[in-house]
UniProtKB/TrEMBL annotation, chain A:
Organism annotation: Amphiplicatus metriothermophilus
Protein name per its UniProtKB record: Beta sliding clamp
Quaternary structure and partners: Forms a ring-shaped head-to-tail homodimer around DNA.
Domain DNA polymerase III beta sliding clamp N-terminal: start-end pairs: 1-120
Pfam family, one: DNA_pol3_beta
From TrEMBL, chain B:
Organism: Amphiplicatus metriothermophilus
Protein name stated in the entry: DNA polymerase IV
EC number: 2.7.7.7
Marked site positions, Substrate discrimination: Y59
Keywords of this entry: Cytoplasm, DNA damage, DNA repair, DNA replication, DNA-binding, DNA-directed DNA polymerase, Magnesium, Metal-binding, Mutator protein, Nucleotidyltransferase, Transferase
InterPro entries given in the database record: DNA/RNA_pol_sf, DNA_pol_Y-fam_lit_finger_sf, DNA_pol_Y-fam_little_finger, DNA_polymerase-Y, DNApol_IV, Rev_trsase/Diguanyl_cyclase, UmuC
Amino acid sequence: MKVTIERSALVRALGHVQSVVERRNTIPILSNVLLQADGGALTLTATDLDIEISESAPADVAVKGAATASAVMLHDIVRKLPEGAQVRLTLVDDEARLQITAGRYEGSLAVLPDEDFPTLASDDMDVRFSMPAADLARLFAKARFAMSQEETRYYLNGVYLHPYADGDVKLLRAAATDGHRLARLDAPLPAGAEKAPGVIVPRKAVSELARLLDDAEETVEVAVSSSKIRFGFGAGYLTSKLIDGTFPDYERVIPKTNPNALRVDNKDFAAAVDRVSTVSADRTRSIKLALAADRLRLTVNNPEAGSALEELSVDYDGEPLEIGFNARYLLDVAAQIDGETATFRLADPSSPTIICDEEDERALYVLMPLRV
Amino acid sequence: MNYSEQHIDKTSVLSLCRDCFAIVQALIGRCPTCGSKRFVSHPELFGLAVAHIDCDAFYAAIEKRDDPALADRPVIVGGGKRGVVSTCCYVARTYGVRSAMPMFKALQACPDAVVIRPDMAKYAAVSRQIRAMMEALTPLVEPLSIDEAFLDLSGTERVHGAPPAVALARLQQRIEREIGVTVSVGLSHNKFLAKIASDLDKPRGFAVIGRAQTLAFLAPQPVSLIWGVGAAMTARLARDGFATIGRLQKADPAELARRYGETGLRLARLSRGEDARPVRPEREAKSVSAETTFEANIRDLRALEDVLWALCEKVSMRMKKANLLGRVVTLKLKDSKFRTITRRETLDRPSNLARAAFAAARALLAEAAPGRAWRLIGVGFSDLANDGAGAAQDDLFGDPQARLAAQERAIDEIRAKFGAKAIAAGRALRPKGDQARND
């Protein structure tokens, strides 16, 4: 293999693929990135056996071939080369080392044979559709905060993606929950996605996608089977195994008839919650919301540290109500709301509360209160 | 005799006979009432109310009580040939045996010693009996460990019809007669000094440190007498010219604070015998843990896991009994060269389940254990909170731990009824010979 490539193109592609590599690996080759030079392009692939990310960049291929070398080290070397450099990658020493030259720099890395590099078998992903990258990015970006980290509830350790149809309304829905809070985001259903199975995209894939979608072009090609999902980005793709579990029937826990509506200025509300909760105990971050006509009073009482209260003018004409929440959960939801006004729909101090962005009916959040 | 009716002149030196509780002025020789030579004299004897009671060689004393043949023999209570000395009786101490000494060293010093495996359940039962007697005197009993406690008897004089010193002497006698072990009493005006006092006249002692003598008493003592001053701090203080507590008394508190921070202020206060900590009943546990030292070092991960599971069950049982939940699980390992490592894991949600502790500790073990042979393993919960205290976060889908908790509760109930061996997890049932298998 002998290939020359623009430094910036290589840094960009390596940056996209190398973050999937686990820092500690018991299988040495999993620390490596697979390099394949062929037909005017260098293709880089990295995997942790659950997720595979691959990206191609245009390159001048003098001798085609393939090898694997340390992903982190190669990325670090190339990153530190001067901007605008032409990087030449050559397999030397009877294909035992990868030589990296750029300007007056010359380095080499140990290689492992490319035949040993594991790839995720691409089984039949027969449901295929394409959708705007921005739509997909939004689904994941606004739902991910609610994903569970609990190993025991592995089926909540991701974002549940599924088609939803109710009469004329056809949506692609993303839901995430850790049992304390829930996020449900909608996007228009892309053509071809009607038959997609409901799938749980694992947490790590969600965060890798967030980075890739940031840099993505306009549309993303999605292919799904019952065990894998693949997102194609033109020059590259991410394939991930899916979480093999049943996502709970979350619609069932979204209250339909909460009678008390509250409208707050989202920014003011978040700032007040943040201020007042500064003195709350770290364990539950408990904050109390007391609602009366057009008034919301936030209080925290922490016998060990101190207390705080703040009153906000709000729109509220429901019955007087006192309800406790984990302040961090309130702030997490507020951070998802882009519009000026957040709408709460409350029932009582022990039932789930709904929070919406008044200007965005395609997003809905549910919070379970704290019983104080 | 009713002491409250008797006029006690608190300005002159009075003596208390520790056998018949007679109070007489400046007793010398024998008690005029009962002929005993055991008495305690102190000008402030009847003006002090904070006591520290420490059992004498507790575990060994219980074993001697239960087997009179051991009475005059050196007895060491400790675990196995690889363990350490938990307690040694006073006979063994004359050979140079000390607690926390490795067993092989203790046996070198005293080859004739009778070594007894600790029977913690038995000692805990005796400890509870003693505690009940203490609590009959005052509600302010703060247990420090299985064999020692602080008592605050302020304001109990009218209830007992006697000053605290007398109530304590009676308690001491009652424990000796009814339970069959001896205790030493330290009486003073705060916890710091009471604890020092209980050590002055051991065993079967009764020592008093009064207000007036506090400074003079402490001055010649080594700084290591102050709790929290260990070997490193002692060396540091010695380097800085503070070998005795007297030196600290003379130092400017601000200067000590500048040099040693928060600790400096504490040293300044304690060097003067000032300690404002109240006696708190039920000292809050900061962590609940259990550990064990192996007979022979273990390298095999499966074998380590088996021991770990047993420890998790033990810790879990104690957590559940105390109605505690812990947020952090800590794994402790000590290798053949006595190097200790600890690894901690924060749980998703506070728990006291054996399974939760095991799941966390096992993952830590898999990371930390390979490559070395280990002589000790331990596991514990920390960052504790009372179950049911504070705000409760309900779950949209119902609590997934609730089922596991119910399962473990059922197992605990079966054990309470039919014994610890009545039911066990599958992994605890592996035959011994199988444990070392490398599969």
